[in-house]
Amino acid sequence: MFVSPLRSIIAERVRRQTVSTTSIQSNTTPVDEPGDWNGGWNPAPTEVSLGNNGTAKKGYFFFTNTGIPQGCTIEVAYLKVTASSNQSGNLVKLTLVGADEDDPSKPTGSADAEGRDRTTATVSWDGVEPWTQNQVYQSPDISTIIQELVSRDGFASNNILLFVEDNGSTANAERRGHGPPGGPARAAQLYVKYTTAGEPPTPPEPPSDPDWWDPNEEGLSVWGAWKPKGAADQASSYTDLTGNGNTMVVGNAPGWDAVNGWTFDGVANYLDTGFTPSKDLDQTVLIQYTDHENAYVCMAGVESRPFVTTHRFYWQNKANNPGARTYVYHTSTGVAIAVARLAGSGNVGVSGTKHYWNGAQDAGDTATSGGADDFVDTFYLGCYNNKGAAAVFAVVYIQAIVIYDEELTEAQVGAVVTEMAAF
Prior knowledge:
By secondary structure, the protein is mainly beta. The chain has 2 domains: 193 residues, no CATH class; 213 residues, Jelly Rolls (Sandwich), CATH 2.60.120.200. The chain has 4 helices and 31 strands. Strands 16, 19, 21, 22, 23, 24, 28, 29 and 30 form a 9-stranded mixed β-sheet that branches. It is rod-shaped and about 100 Å long. The N terminus is likely disordered.
């Protein structure tokens, strides 16, 4: 008969709730003591014998602190044993049975073990296959034994004593398993999966939508963030979600709906972000949009004068020239950052001197800083702010916009745009 050093118990819980929610948990507990007898009392042996090694063996696995709840429903249970040597041939036949007690103690000798009450339920493990050293082998399902134990009114959710006894193996037909010196990695295990009825769990908090502007929780220096798509109403769509208080200023209110966000008419609609760009380009602006018309228009931006040269920071669709790319002019030098055409849908952005299209930097596109003078005008949406006057209006639907007081890396831009694209 085999008794493995059961180093752990894995108890997996499937909690049957009053709603269709299943919770699975597991834990491991070192075995207090395995052992065998018949031919001498042999607790915690180096190598334990399963079956008949010239003598019909009897043995035990003593599990402590199992944590299996009284009255639960056992779905499946089995014993797993790691072979300590190669064993093949002959017929190995075993019987598994439990000590029918609320909270059994480990046996102190063969007489004590023989005298324990057994469960009515037993399980046969017949025709055990050949074993290969250090491979793991699993018994048949012993859920009927464990169910009988946990159904006892006084079951203590603590100890389980499992017996494995020879049941007619041929002479010298045995399988050997690692004893305690085999170490935890080769320990036998008792696996139990069960369900319990209970109150439905408290639902987790829904994902916090504001996290989209800092998805990796890096503490990005965000100036303001707005998400008109999915807002409760048009008035709340103007609220800065970061809590910084940068409410969008309505110049000429665009349309709004929860599916498309702000819908600019290309005639008079515009919003004022209140954000004044820095000449040093140490900012980032990202805009998620759809339905941009294919015309010579500006979706967003600002141009400040009077200066020796012009400060420009805007997106302009060059639809009057079918062969041309769309341009963003950024800073007093008039350097153009070439980007894909704005017509249609996507995510467009500038971070520092770099332009981004759908979260990826446009290769080779750069701008330069604007000299000694800062912008004095603010950044508009639905057109651009031409020295304090709304101009070159665009038909475009904007779902979200975020502005940072710092230049983001390409990886950071990509992470934010991924969140925005999922809206």
